[in-house]
Write a structure and sequence with these properties.
The chain is α/β, with parallel strands linked by helices. It has two domains: 125 residues, no CATH class; 218 residues, Alpha-Beta Complex (Spore Coat Polysaccharide Biosynthesis Protein SpsA, Chain A), CATH 3.90.550. Helix content is 54%, strand content 12%. α1 runs parallel beside α11, α6 packs across α11 and α8 packs parallel to α9. It starts with a helix and ends in an 18-residue tail after the last helix.
Length: 399
């Protein structure tokens, strides 16, 4: 039996679903008049990994149209000491909480380090405002982003709002291939959002109704706390929306080692989140798609590569493979062009990313398949290790 036909059918089904999501991503709901609303608290966990720039990041957060900024020093005395030296804070008796006189800045000293989800959960009871913006300490957030997300979430009376990510360090091979990869991911994410099934409110930035997040909270047993919370919102019937015209600057791994570590953790987290949130209601459609085209894809692609290397494949099989690769390149190019106006990409950047799209398939994709396979193995082995990715500090140099 020529299993290349079965593999071809699977790839065709995957490409069809990607094509549908791509078409859906071009639909948009007009955003009403953008208004400023300061009834927002920002929460940013900080570890020793963030200590070098946490003061600069906090000052930028305080310059945003927010009512409150909460920095959770998650087992990090270095970040805590830097903030205490930089700001005039006083302690709230009987707690490990320190606050500025105008109550706009709060620093929580969390003694024991834990997951990001646990750090955010520990601060939710100190939120003063009806909306909460959860970000990474190195996220680049603009006033326009906050205002657009607030306008969207109030316009649709939603409980949570996702925000697309744009890379601020898209340099060198690793940076450029991730610009294309992120553009493709954000385009497909917009497609899911237009189906009312946003697949992920990224941990790098998301806006929530405070009361809803206090009910759902993050699961601190997984490294994919953002996936878990998003799917929990869906399965509990909360309304989740998405604002494609906003964006958050995000620092991606810039070396082989850090990219490998991140992708292994991401795929392990996908397994964890799928096992924690059972498929219910409309979310069952998303859950099933993720199992078939994200979890099983890794095993099928590895098996397919082994099959191609050890069996004689018909000419139609090779044509099918060529068609699949060509569509993936086309999807990357269309996604980059779609995201260009939102992510502020220059014409030269767009051209460069499009030109190296074949290199992404030739070098990055096989590596990514291998890393994701290692993530699956780590999940089944019960490996819950987590490796911090060193910051290049490029994110906080952006304005």
């Amino acid at each position: 039996m020529d299993l290349s036909y079965i593999l071809g059918f699977y790839m065709l089904a995957a490409l069809f679903s990607y094509a549908v999501l791509l078409v859906l991503s071009y639909r948009s709901t007009p955003l009403g008049a953008i208004k400023e609303d300061r009834n927002v608290s920002l929460i940013a966990p900080a570890t020793d990994n963030d200590a070098a720039f946490i003061v600069a990041a906090t000052k930028k957060f305080l310059a945003l149209p927010l009512g409150q900024v909460i920095i959770v020093c998650d087992g990090s005395y270095q970040s805590f000491a830097a903030l205490m030296n930089a700001f005039d804070l006083y302690d709230i008796p009987g707690t490990n909480v320190f606050e500025s006189k105008d109550k706009r800045l709060m620093v929580i000293r969390k003694i024991s380090a834990g997951s990001k989800g646990h750090a955010v959960n520990s601060s939710l009871d100190y939120v003063y405002f009806p909306y909460v913006f959860v970000v990474d300490a190195d996220s680049v957030v603009s006033a326009d982003t906050v205002n657009r997300c607030m306008t969207r979430i109030k316009q649709e009376n939603a409980d949570a709002c996702g925000i697309p990510l744009r890379l601020v360090n898209g340099k060198g091979y690793w940076g450029f291939v991730q610009v294309g990869e992120f553009a493709r991911a954000m385009t497909l994410r917009q497609g899911w959002a237009n189906l009312g099934l946003l697949c992920n409110i990224s941990g790098a930035a998301g806006l929530f109704r405070t009361s809803a997040l206090q009910q759902v909270r993050y699961d601190d047993s997984t490294c994919a706390e953002d996936l878990h919370s998003t799917w929990s919102f869906h399965s509990r019937g909360y309304k989740v929306t998405y604002e494609e015209t906003a964006s958050i600057g995000h620092e991606a791994p810039s070396t082989y080692a850090t990219c490998r570590s991140q992708r292994i953790r991401w795929h392990r987290g996908l397994h964890e989140a799928l096992s924690l949130v059972p498929p219910r209601g409309e979310y069952a459609v998303l859950w099933t798609w993720l199992v078939i085209f994200e979890v099983l894809e890794v095993f099928i692609e590895v098996f397919g590569l082994c099959w191609l290397a050890t069996h004689r494949v018909s000419s139609s099989g090779w044509w099918g493979l060529a068609g699949t690769l060509s569509f993936t390149i086309l999807l990357t190019i269309l996604s980059v062009l779609h995201r260009r106006k939102f992510d502020g990409l220059t014409g030269r950047q767009v051209l460069t990313v499009c030109l190296i799209a074949p290199l992404e398939l030739a070098i990055f994709k096989p590596l990514n398949i291998w890393w994701r396979l290692l993530g699956s193995v780590a999940y089944f082995k019960g490996d819950r290790s987590w490796e911090a990715i060193p910051r290049a500090l490029e994110a906080q140099s952006q304005s």
